[in-house]
Specification:
- By secondary structure, the protein is α+β, with helices and mostly antiparallel strands.
- The chain contains six helices and four strands.
- The strands form two sheets. A two-stranded antiparallel sheet has the order 1-2. The chain has a two-stranded antiparallel ribbon with strand order 3-4.
- Strand 3 and strand 4 form a beta hairpin.
- Helix 4 packs antiparallel against helix 5.
Length: 190
C-alpha cells in the first residue's frame, strides 16, 4: 500500500504535488467500489488513506471517498505528521499506521501536538439531504457503526468487530480487518 518513497523524498518540498496522479476514471472506480455517489459538489473527496506526503501511494487500495466535514481537518493532521516525520520526531511508519488506523486520533502520536482533533459531527440521518457516512475504511472505532452500516452493506457481526473497517470480497464490510478470519464467510478481504 505504501510507495517506496524515502523520508528524504517525502520531505522534499513539492514531493506530494509531483507524486499525485489520480485520474478521474480511477476516482469513479473508487466511488463505485465504495457504493458511494458524489451527489453534490464538495460532499466527497477521493482521498489517500495514507497521504502522499507520508509515503502513501496512488494505488486504488490507498484511495477512499472521504465525506465532508472531514477532509480539511484531516489535511491539518497530515501536515502535523509530515512535519513530525521530517523533523525526526517520529518514524514515518508510525505516522503511516496512525493515520491509516484513525486520522482523527493520529495527531496524538506527534510529540507536542496536543490533544487529538475534536470528533467529527455525527452524519445526518439518511434522507436528510446530505450524505451519510460513518467511520469508514481503516477506522478501529465503533462510534459511527450505525451510520456507516446505514449506507454500506455490513456483515451481520460488524458491530462485534475488533479490527479495522475493511471491504470483503463479496462487497460487504467487516470491522475485523487485520484480524485472523476477517471476512471468512464472505470470500476473504478484498
Amino acid at each position: 500500500m505504501f510507495a517506496a518513497a524515502t523520508v528524504g523524498q517525502i520531505c522534499t518540498p513539492g514531493y506530494a504535488r509531483n507524486a499525485r496522479n489520480v485520474p478521474e476514471s480511477l476516482k469513479e472506480t473508487v466511488y463505485a467500489d465504495y457504493a458511494t455517489e458524489p451527489s453534490a459538489p464538495g460532499s466527497y473527496e477521493v482521498d489517500h488513506l495514507v497521504p502522499l506526503e507520508l509515503g502513501g501511494s496512488n494505488a486504488i487500495a490507498n484511495l477512499w471517498p472521504e465525506i465532508t466535514p472531514g477532509y480539511h481537518e484531516k489535511d491539518k493532521v497530515e501536515n502535523a505528521l509530515h512535519d513530525a516525520v521530517c523533523s525526526g520526531r517520529i518514524p514515518v511508519r508510525v505516522a503511516q499506521l496512525a493515520i491509516a488506523r484513525d486520522w482523527r486520533r493520529a495527531g496524538v502520536v506527534v510529540p507536542g501536538a496536543g490533544p487529538a482533533p475534536p470528533p467529527m459531527p455525527a452524519p445526518a440521518p439518511a434522507g436528510a439531504g446530505s450524505p451519510t457516512g460513518g467511520e469508514g475504511p481503516g477506522s478501529t472505532t465503533h462510534s459511527g457503526d450505525a451510520a456507516f452500516c446505514s449506507t454500506h452493506a455490513c456483515i451481520a457481526n460488524f458491530p462485534n468487530g475488533k479490527g479495522a473497517v475493511v471491504r470483503c470480497a463479496d462487497g460487504e464490510w467487516s470491522h475485523s480487518g487485520g484480524l485472523a478470519g476477517v471476512c471468512n464467510r464472505h470470500g476473504g478481504p478484498r
